[in-house]
Amino acid sequence: MAIEGAQTPPDVVEDVFDGRATDIEVEDAGEDATRIQRPWNPDQIRVNTSQFSLRNILDQIDEGSIELAPDFQRLRVWRVDQKSLLVESLLLQIPLPAFYFAEDADGSFRVVDGLQRLSTLHSFVRGGETGFALGKLEHLDDLKDLRFSDLPVPFQRRINNTQLIVNVIDPTTPRGVTYEIFKRINTGGTPLNAQEIRHCMSSPRSRDILHRMTHTDAFAKATGGRLTNHIRMNDREMALRFAAFWLKGVAAYHERPVMEQFLMDATEMLDSAKQVPDERVAELEVVFERAMHRASMVFGEHAFRKWPQGDDYRRPINRALFETWSMALADPEDATHEDTSMDLFTRREAIVKAARDRMTTDVTYLNAITSSTADRHRVDYRFKAAVADAGAGQ
Predict the structure, then answer these.
(1) Minimal CA–CA distance to 73: which of 206, 266, 236?
(2) N or C: which end of the chain has fewer CB within 10 A?
(3) 378 phi and psi, to 5 degrees?
(4) Residue 328 located in a structural domain
């Protein structure tokens, strides 16, 4: 049944990865969303080239000097045959492409490019029984089904002695420049997305915070149960977006309207106990969980999804709706009482109607949650709209 005055909602395109739907709507953030502050002073970019044996690299991984971001879901997407061909390249003494590391001030390294390759080699050589056996090979068929410990000693030695070229980004290089370098050389078989890059560049503190935020029953219920441990780390990005706006405010985004920079800054804040003390982190997690509970209480299975009047089709999660409605449903920073949730419960039908009406007839709003979503004016409009709709029925 057509609704008088209704606009045709923009086509919703669901992101697909490795042949699987991700339950996340593809975002058109616009060109400005990815522009880290420019111009740079070329003198600030310092990259040194070194050569290490694979044995030395694996030793540093084992001792913790090189971190492989253990909860990085994307590492699982390489098939055994792909991993086996990488090992075969070493056995055939075929040089591997250069690796990129970013050095921290304490002398430890983060893998900027080559994370999947290093993880694969570490799993094969040091994984023992938990590692993998070689699968299909193109030239060394007689080694199929063998683990590292099963290989002839000369082959084991050849792998361990393989020389790897590593370009090391000096710790004095600005973080934003390192991020841009990461993006530019991120040319593997399955390039990392923005959140995966941030994850690799961040410290355990922010990663643990985002992990806890996305591993609650309230988050699972509000996002339909498909987002937790998301293969593209979109669950962590959603939590980070909430944290960024909650910690910094919408006004801070207006001052510097570059979404990737905004989220990178928030990641650095979460990594710093000085900028965001543990008490503040605990408050963030409580408020976020409460917002997730309220989102599912008000919108049910349509939380954070486009839901125009006259159409009950369950669409994928929309990032712009997530960041605005999670903030609109969060308590003020000093709120400690539960009467707000009861008030939302009694007004939920009015709130849903206001939100659905807006998604049906407000072209400006539809644009703000669909295209050029990082534009400061569209960010401002959708945040104000969510706050207004959250107040419906009062």
Answers:
(1) 236
(2) N
(3) -75, -35
(4) yes
Q: In this structure, are strands 163-169 and 99-103 parallel, antiparallel, or unpaired?
A: parallel
| Phi and psi angles of residue 12, each rounded to the nearest 5 degrees, phi first | -100, 125
Residue 97 is given by DSSP the state P
Residue with tokens 């159409």: 311
Q: For residue 263, what are its two tokens?
A: 């989220």
Domains identified in the chain, total number: 2
Tell whether 248 and 360 lie within a shared domain.
yes
Helix locations, 161-249, DSSP H: 175-185, 194-201, 204-213, 217-222, 234-248
Q: Kindly state the percentage of the chain with pLDDT values over 70.
A: 86
Out of 129, 153, 172, a domain closes at 172
Residue 369 within any structural domain of the chain:
yes
164 with 215, same domain? no
Closest CA to 87 of 179, 187, 162: 162
**Domain match, 339 and 243 both:** yes
Closest CA to 186 of 38, 74, 324, 299: 74
Q: Is 80 exceeded by the pLDDT of residue 183?
A: no
Where among 121, 156, 172 does a domain terminate? 172
What is the distance between the alpha carbons of residues 237 and 291, in angstroms, rounded to a whole number? Answer: 16
Do 99 and 209 share a domain, yes or no? no
Same domain, yes or no: 134 and 64: yes
Domain-located, residue 21: no
Q: CA 87, CA 137: separation in Å to the nearest integer?
A: 9
Residues 308 and 162 placed together within one structural domain of the fold: no
Q: Is the pLDDT of residue 230 over 60?
A: yes
| DSSP result, 327-372 | HHTSPPTT---SHHHHHHHHHHHHHHHHHHHHHHH-HHHHHHTTSS
Task: Give the model confidence (pLDDT) of 44-91 as tens digits.
Answer: 678 889 999 999 999 999 998 998 765 654 544 578 888 999 999 999
Output the pLDDT for position 178: 78
- Owning domain of residue 222: 202-390
Amino acid residing at 34: T
Q: b/e string for 30-48 if b means 16 or more Cβ within 10 A?
A: beebbebeeeeeeeebeee
72/76 Cα distance (integer angstroms) = 8
Residue bearing the bigger pLDDT, 180 or 264: 264
